[in-house]
Write a structure and sequence with these properties.
- The chain is α+β, with helices and mostly antiparallel strands.
- It is 39% helix and 24% strand.
- It is built from 18 helices and 23 strands.
- The mean pLDDT is 91.
Length: 503
């Protein structure tokens, strides 16, 4: 059995993995760059070791440094989290070579599903529906011919891509060359792989993903779906489970196809099969993420399953303890990604020192983050600083709860997207559950309404100023009084006088 795990990641996912480890009495090792020396994941772990300078290419992406850290601390397993090297078959192979347990799928499965061209071919052979397109690498001239055959609109994608990088939508002839060259350049710089392929672009579909779980004995189950259609530039912002557009029959059909997809590559561990679903509920395989997803907490909340513990059990070569008939969704969960970014300035990252932090509490509330008061958010990494998750008995109740906890969540010293997320919870399309991947674009004016955000900020600013003035006014007077006769608030006396004047 695994005794000590090195988490080859940073921030909130590192803390989240460590929490499950602590419950399983497994020791943890944090790795950190010089910029992350005071991050919460470093403070939370049993041991911590520096693996290089701030840039991720010199630290979190250096396999030699991670392996050396595991050996130095005696870690017998590595959990890669998500992002960074979590889908690197080279890293997984290196772990096996060094006698370190890799908490994830086999390198072969990662390669088959990590490359989008290979994944498309595999899914077609397995009988899983895919978006019409051409899955081999194309030159510019070949791309022009294929696009005319498929018909507009089309999307050019990086084979090794993810997170919206290396993707361009083409709607007319004049856009082909620029989109092709830009996508290839972005793919090369982001993934060191310029291979592109072309698909028919499905306008504003639903982005539905199925969580799957497999073991080393050929058992695979699905853990139902997540709705991930609230996206900005292909980056998810809000996710929920169950999906408001899902039916029991569609869930059963898509779940079976997700299992077929996983079995086609002998998948073990936790993974995600992503689909595009049109308004007629036709669905198509999009890609597979061979790792834990950012949005995995909402699945945990509606199923009461700890996915990290399940990953560790599979890595311990144990059979799945769950069967498909055990999987029943309960209630509704919503996740909002909290990011240090300036929504009024084209969502530019907003690094800096957190001056004040008040996290929401109460029933059905979960906060996954890695920051604290006084912590300086570095400029080198993704701006997401945490995730806010709520669970309630119904979707309507979950939205009300999310509104409440977003109101309670206070962060000063940096700019965040909290007001933007509040606005999403108020959007009529979201409230009705009638939205797709075009939600942000369709509601952009409402979501970026300056009056809405300004009035919210102004109200909070006035309250803070008033509270501080009240504190100063009472400070000297209360210094000479006992607890029983201290003045609680000058504003109460002011209010009483005004009420008498109105009478």
């Amino acid at each position: 059995m695994i005794k000590k795990i090195l988490i080859a990641n940073r921030g909130e996912i590192a803390v989240r993995v460590m929490r499950s480890c602590k419950e399983m009495n497994i020791a943890t090792v944090a790795v950190y760059s010089e910029a992350d020396r005071t991050s919460r994941h470093v403070l939370y772990a049993d041991e911590a070791i520096c693996i290089g300078p701030a840039p991720s290419k010199d630290s979190y992406l250096v396999i030699d440094n991670l392996i050396a850290a595991a050996k130095q601390t005696g870690a017998d397993a590595i959990h890669p989290g998500y992002g960074f090297l979590s889908e690197s078959s080279d890293f997984a192979r290196r772990c096996a070579k060094e006698g370190i347990i890799w908490i994830g799928p086999s390198p072969e499965a990662m390669e088959m599903m990590g490359d989008k061209i290979t994944a498309r071919k595999t899914m077609i052979e397995a009988g899983v529906p895919v978006v019409p397109g051409v899955q081999h690498d194309l030159s510019l001239e070949e791309a022009k011919k294929v696009i005319k055959e498929i018909g507009y609109p089309v999307i050019v994608k990086a084979s090794a891509g993810g997170g919206g990088k290396g993707m361009r939508v083409i709607r007319k002839d004049e856009e082909i060359e620029e989109a092709y060259n830009t996508a290839k350049s972005e793919a090369l710089s982001s993934f060191a792989n310029g291979t592109l392929y072309i698909e028919k672009y499905i306008e504003n579909p639903h982005h539905i993903e199925f969580q799957i779980l497999g073991d080393n004995f050929g058992n695979v189950i699905h853990l139902c779906e997540r709705e991930c259609s609230v996206q900005r530039r292909h980056q998810k912002i809000v996710e929920e489970s169950p999906s408001p557009m899902m039916t029991a029959d569609l869930r059963k059909d898509m779940g079976e196809k997700a299992i077929m997809a996983a079995k086609a590559v002998n998948y073990s561990g936790a993974g995600t099969i992503e689909f595009l679903v049109d308004d007629n509920k036709n669905y198509y395989f999009l890609e597979m993420n061979t790792r834990l997803q950012v949005e995995h907490p909402i699945t945990e909340e509606v199923l009461r399953i700890d996915l990290v513990k399940e990953q560790i059990n599979v890595a311990n070569n144990l059979p799945l303890r769950l069967h498909q008939e055990d999987i029943v969704q309960r209630g509704h969960a919503i996740e909002c990604r909290i990011c240090a970014e300036d929504t009024e300035n084209n969502f530019m990252p907003s690094p800096g020192i957190i001056q004040q932090l008040t996290e929401p509490l109460g029933i059905g509330t979960r906060v996954d983050n890695y920051v604290y008061e006084g912590y300086e958010i570095p400029i080198f990494y993704d701006p997401m600083i945490g995730k806010l998750i709520v669970w309630a008995t119904t979707r309507a109740y979950a939205i009300k709860r999310m509104r409440r906890v977003l109101f309670e969540y206070k962060i000063t010293g940096i700019k965040t997207n909290i007001n933007y997320l509040r606005r999403i919870m108020d959007a009529s399309d979201f409230l009705r559950g009638k939205y797709d991947t075009g939600f942000i674009e369709k509601n952009s004016e409402f979501l970026l309404d300056e009056h809405y955000e300004g009035s919210q900020d102004e109200t909070e600013d006035i309250a803070i100023i008033a509270a501080y003035m009240d504190y100063i006014l009472n400070l000297e007077e209360n210094a000479t009084k006992t607890t029983d006769n201290r003045v609680i608030s000058k504003w109460r006396e002011f209010g009483k006088r005004n009420a008498m004047l109105r009478i």
